[in-house]
């Protein structure tokens, strides 16, 4: 790099962390401005907002209603498998997708749709493997999805499929990203709320933010990356009022972490597809699961104001103070899923979370990858409707950043392919010494669970003993401000 550019990334969720890591690996000096502060000393507050409740690294199999989402997810899944270390999966290896008999009886050929989708996934994977042997991450294409004859203990099953959707544990993701940000030398500024971003006449960007000590500070960056989830749209539209943003649906969703006092025999996710949905059981380890039952979870769905890109007022209120139906919906969700999953019989709610899911359509079963926006030369915006697309989008936004550096003469065009490839190398190639000691690793992960306001039991992996973590079995309700 002829001149080391300064890049400012706004937001320290998964999108911002990956933008910072990949840009830093490419040779840029990177500052992350994240509004939240760490609750655990010695850690960065990463993935504390929407990225704290993810549990699935999708493969497309759960989107039989939408072949493009299926292909996008599979691409995301492949790139993530190459980018993240094994640790983030915490031992959960695949997903079981069930097509319900009641849906077939109601005249919807969900089994046929799932079978067709498995074919789409197999052929898309075969194509990716042919393009690059490094993409062969799930074995032979013919074997990555398969139909299984029987599912014990679940009612109303027409067909079941084993698929490469792989669970992951958001606390272990944060643990890995914190270490990698330090390895890359990223300047992570917590408690820094960005208030304004302007483009200067020379093409650079002036960023103003309220810093950790409450004082207004500023930075001038060569390039910026807007990764502040929904707040990024406001910043982007202010920078470039002509920017075309798709119609955006913002769904207010409720999701629960529950304990598993009787353990679980599942180190895979169970997802049941039906009109009134059977919901999802996603164990994070032997002691804790994420559960989701759409009729209870889907509280509201509003369209983002296209001109102002403002967050709906109701959402601001609910995220800060909770929704009046939260408790009732949480009880309904747990009660309903007990019908499907016997291990939930004695489960208690460990955490109730209100979050906003972003989509370009109103139907949650059809998910669109929004991709990366070029707001101006040198300014990108990445808003992730799905965690699964994080590494794919990081590669795209780094390509845009490099393209700008080439245009201004700071990077040689011939260097771009190698910089891109090297920036996408697997995290934790250099592992921290504490990663080899189970207790120390759990201790680090626990600090992130505290930052992320999720149950500390998430710090464990499958097969870990529960001893280092005390589970408070009293029900907890939490409303989080994730504007
Ligand atoms: C209920 C639910 C379940 C989900 N489950 C899954 C799943 O299993 N798998 C999957 O693939 N996807 C899932 N998703 C989607 C996934 O959560 C998101 O795609 C992903 O977490 C978005 O990451 P992000 O970095 O864009 O946003 P965030 O994680 O929200 O990060 C944005 C960051 O920007 C910071 N910020 C905001 N404003 C400012 C500012 N002015 N200045 C500085 N910093 C700022 C915030 O503090 C935050 O840290 C789920 C979504 C929901 C709602």
UniProtKB/TrEMBL annotation:
<dbReference type="Pfam" id="PF01266">
    <property type="entry name" value="DAO"/>
</dbReference>
<dbReference type="InterPro" id="IPR006076">
    <property type="entry name" value="FAD-dep_OxRdtase"/>
</dbReference>
<feature type="domain" description="FAD dependent oxidoreductase">
    <location>
        <begin position="8"/>
        <end position="262"/>
    </location>
</feature>
<dbReference type="InterPro" id="IPR036188">
    <property type="entry name" value="FAD/NAD-bd_sf"/>
</dbReference>
<protein>
    <submittedName>
        <fullName>FAD-dependent oxidoreductase</fullName>
    </submittedName>
</protein>
């Amino acid at each position: 790099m002829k001149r080391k550019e300064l890049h400012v990334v706004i937001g320290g969720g998964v999108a911002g962390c990956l933008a910072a890591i990949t840009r830093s690996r490419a040779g840029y000096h990177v500052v992350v401005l994240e509004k939240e502060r760490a609750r655990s000393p010695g850690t960065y507050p990463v993935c504390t907002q929407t990225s704290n409740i993810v549990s699935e690294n999708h493969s497309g199999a759960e989107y039989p209603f939408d072949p493009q989402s299926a292909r996008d997810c599979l691409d995301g899944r492949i790139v993530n498998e190459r980018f993240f270390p094994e640790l983030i999966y915490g031992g959960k290896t695949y997903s079981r997708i069930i097509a319900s008999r009641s849906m077939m009886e109601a005249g919807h050929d969900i089994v046929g749709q799932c079978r067709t989708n498995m074919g789409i996934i197999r052929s898309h994977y075969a194509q990716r493997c042919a393009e690059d042997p490094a993409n062969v991450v799930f074995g032979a294409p013919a074997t990555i999805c398969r139909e299984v004859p029987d599912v014990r203990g679940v009612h109303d099953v027409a067909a079941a499929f084993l698929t490469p959707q792989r669970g992951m544990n958001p606390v272990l993701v944060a643990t890995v990203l914190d270490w990698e940000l330090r390895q890359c030398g990223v300047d992570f500024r917590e408690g820094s709320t960005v208030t304004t971003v302007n483009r200067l006449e020379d093409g650079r960007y002036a960023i103003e933010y309220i810093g950790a000590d409450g004082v207004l500070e500023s930075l001038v960056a060569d390039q910026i990356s807007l990764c502040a989830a929904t707040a990024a749209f406001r910043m982007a539209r202010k920078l470039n009022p002509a920017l075309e943003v798709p119609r955006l649906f913002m769904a207010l969703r409720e999701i629960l972490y529950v304990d598993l006092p009787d353990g679980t025999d599942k180190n895979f996710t169970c997802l049941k597809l039906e009109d009134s949905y059977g919901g999802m059981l996603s164990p994070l380890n032997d002691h804790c699961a994420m559960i989701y039952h759409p009729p209870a979870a889907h509280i509201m769905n509003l369209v983002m104001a296209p001109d102002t890109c403002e967050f709906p007022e109701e959402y601001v209120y609910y995220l800060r103070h909770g929704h009046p139906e939260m408790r009732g919906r949480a009880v309904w969700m747990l009660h309903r899923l007990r019908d499907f999953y016997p291990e939930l019989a004695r489960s208690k709610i460990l955490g109730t979370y209100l979050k906003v899911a972003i989509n370009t359509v109103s139907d949650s079963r059809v998910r669109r990858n929004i991709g990366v926006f070029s707001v101006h030369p040198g300014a990108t915006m990445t808003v992730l409707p799905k965690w699964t697309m994080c590494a794919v989008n990081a590669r795209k936004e780094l390509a845009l950043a490099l393209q700008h550096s080439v245009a201004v003469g700071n990077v040689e065009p011939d260097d771009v392919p190698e910089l891109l490839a090297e920036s996408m190398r697997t995290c934790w190639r250099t592992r921290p010494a504490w990663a080899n000691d189970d207790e120390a690793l759990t201790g680090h992960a626990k600090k992130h669970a505290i930052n992320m306001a999720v149950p500390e039991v998430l710090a464990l992996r499958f097969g870990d003993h529960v001893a280092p973590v005390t589970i408070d079995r009293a029900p907890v309700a939490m409303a989080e401000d994730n504007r």
